[in-house]
Amino acid sequence: MTLLPQHTRFRRRATFGALIFTLLAGPQAATAATAAAGEQPESACIQCHETLPDRLGAPVKLWRASIHAENGISCNACHGGDAKDAADAMNRTRGFLGAPKEAEVPAFCGRCHPGVMKDYLLSAHGKALGKGGPNCVTCHGNHRVVKASLELINEKNCSRCHSFERARTIRAAMQQTESYVVGIDARIAGFQAEGVDTDRLGKGLFAIRNRFHTLFHEVDVSLVKRESARIDAELGKLDLELKAIEDARARRRVVGGFVVTGLLLLAWLFHLLKKTYD
């Protein structure tokens, strides 16, 4: 019989012992093991509400399909409270805020999105707050919060309050810029994945994208068209820089191909010479 090294036998016994302990100790030990592995358990809010029926449980399902869930933003980030203690999760002394009233929604969301709140309050929609105008959740949803994009400017959303015609014109004016932003973002991400230093380009795109997003609440068609044209021009500069990187990399690949081909030819000639002298 082949004896295993001492450290290997010890490691196998430790692993087996940990497995037996987890099976005997039950779910609590499994949860602790999961947390130790870096997967934190879900908040007390989710664990509790997910088991409740109807309107009390529905928010969890909606939240799971949201941009908030995708980015690890849980219930307490918006509603406050102690997310680790089910008994005190909704205790006001632990910072619980509950759900805001209609007119309070912009300030509620603006704690994390101050720039967006400012744009909204300056818009025709923001000026109609409390007078029948829409707030953040009207278009973005409350628990199933969707990522900000031009997809939100659609006939179903807009025609709930007014004609879609002006919104349609604004969306069309911004569509090309949106595609431009998405395309450049994908190219930068691709270079970054290959180890190319794209920090400056990424910061430049971030600033441009933020400027573009300020137009999402604007209802002045002429202003949207002018700003979109200016932003397109700035994106064009990033596009030229990316093309320069792409051209340089293409040239390196061609040179590399010639070098490899040259080395292969030398190896072949060396082989022929060796056979000749042999």
Short description:
The protein is mainly α and 278 residues long.
Q: How would you explain this protein's 3D organization?
A:
- With 278 residues, the chain is mainly alpha-helical.
- Among the domains are: 58 residues, no CATH class; 40 residues, no CATH class; 85 residues.
- 67% of the residues lie in helices and 0% in strands.
- It is flat.
* Proportion in β-strands: under 5%
Describe the biggest sheet?
Answer: none
Query: How many strand elements?
Result: 0
Low-confidence blocks of residues:
1-39
Mean pLDDT: 82
Given the helix and strand composition, which structural class is it?
A: mainly alpha
Name the shape in a single word. Answer: flat
Count of DSSP-assigned helices? 14
The succession of helices and strands, N to C, reads: HHHHHHHHHHHHHH
Helix percentage: 55-70%
Helix-strand layout with pairing:
Elements: H1 6-25, H2 27-36, H3 44-49, H4 54-64, H5 67-70, H6 75-79, H7 105-110, H8 114-122, H9 124-127, H10 136-140, H11 155-158, H12 165-193, H13 199-213, H14 221-277
